[in-house]
Amino acid sequence: MRAILPLLFLFLLLNVCARADEQADEEKRKQFLKAREEMKTVPLTPAPETTPKPKPKPVRPAATPLPAATPTPAPKPPEPEVTPRPKPKPKPEPEATPRPRQTMLFPAGPTPGPARATVSAPVVIEKSGFEQQRSYEPAPSAGWFEKWKYLTKSVRNEIDRAPVLSRRWRYIVVHNSGTRQGNAKAFDYYHLHVRKMPNGLAYHFVIGNGTSTGDGEIEIGNRWKRQINGGHVHSDYLNNIALGICLVGDFNRDTPTKKQLEACEELIRYLRQRVGKIDRQWAIVKPHREINPPRWPTDCPGDRFPYRWIHGRFDQPGT
Asked: In angstroms, rounded to a whole number, what is the distance separating the alpha carbons of residues 273 and 285?
């Protein structure tokens, strides 16, 4: 019984507190409703309307009075025609003596003064030294070396037709083909397509041995007709001043035929006359291995080539 009394007292206390809170909430609600009724809505004042101003009317200018009519003057009598005198022709000014051109390293600067435009003078480049005009060598006369055995008329005409510059060819170099047969056409195909030489046949002349062409037959290459450098020596400088003659054959195993040597001698003598002398000296005749640069040794035209024959005929002065 004693344990129940405190619980009952606590329950009554909580009940009283709850009712007090309800009364306080009710009182606040009534005050809120009363205050809301007393509130007045303030109307918004509308903005004053702007009255548009009337546009001013354009004022027309007063009419300008027309000027009084001016009396027309009487026409003047026609004046007599005057024949114009011919104007004297201006005398031609004397030509100014041209000044020698000067080589300028840099363009000139702008020309001072407001009346002249800013112009840079062009750079003039001149070659140093004097370049002599080179003439063409005439063909030998018809009476020279009259007995022809291997140089036919067509071959001589082809040699004479080429435009040979004076002092161009200083050497005549003798080669062997290294093959026992062949001709200019076969060697041209090999040099053009296998060796990839853009001008084809490396020699200026080819002398046959009787296999693919006649024994001692002379063929003229395109390099002589066009007068361009050869491709037969391992030196660009020598190729530009040396004519190349190739004898068909392998002269490490065989010897040149008698007709080949005779045709070679006849061709060399004619070519010497055709290209002319340089410093009073005929073109120098050399076997290939005696003129090739030491860095590129060669056995051409072969160990069995008659070197005494070629030196005995063309090493003597005046020959």
From this structure: 13
Q: 108-143: per-residue pLDDT in tens?
A: 344 444 444 444 444 333 333 334 457 998 887 755
Token readout for 60 is 């027309």
Question: What letter would DSSP give residue 303?
Answer: T
Taking alpha carbons only, the member of 232, 116, 122 closest to residue 178 is 232
174, 203 Cβ separation under 8 angstroms? no
Query: Parallel, antiparallel, or unpaired: how do β-strands 215-220 and 205-209 relate?
Result: antiparallel
Superfamily of 168-314 according to CATH: Peptidoglycan recognition protein-like (3.40.80.10)
Domain ranges of the chain: 168-314
Q: Which of 287, 289, 283 is nearest to 308 (CA)?
A: 287
**With a threshold of 0.85, does the pTM exceed it?**
no
Peptide bond into 301 cis (omega under 30): yes
**Three-class SS of residue 192?**
helix
Using DSSP's 3-state secondary structure scheme, residue 205 falls into: strand
User: What is d(CA 163, CA 179) in angstroms, rounded to the nearest whole number?
Assistant: 32
Task: Lowest mean pLDDT of 58-67, 144-153, 181-190, 238-247, name the range.
Answer: 58-67
Planar angle of CA 106, 112, 114, nearest 5 degrees: 140
Q: Taking 70 as the threshold, does the pLDDT of residue 29 lie above it?
A: yes
CA distance 309 to 312: 5
Q: Dig out the tokens for 32 from the structure.
A: 């809120």
* 50 Cα distance to chain centroid: 81
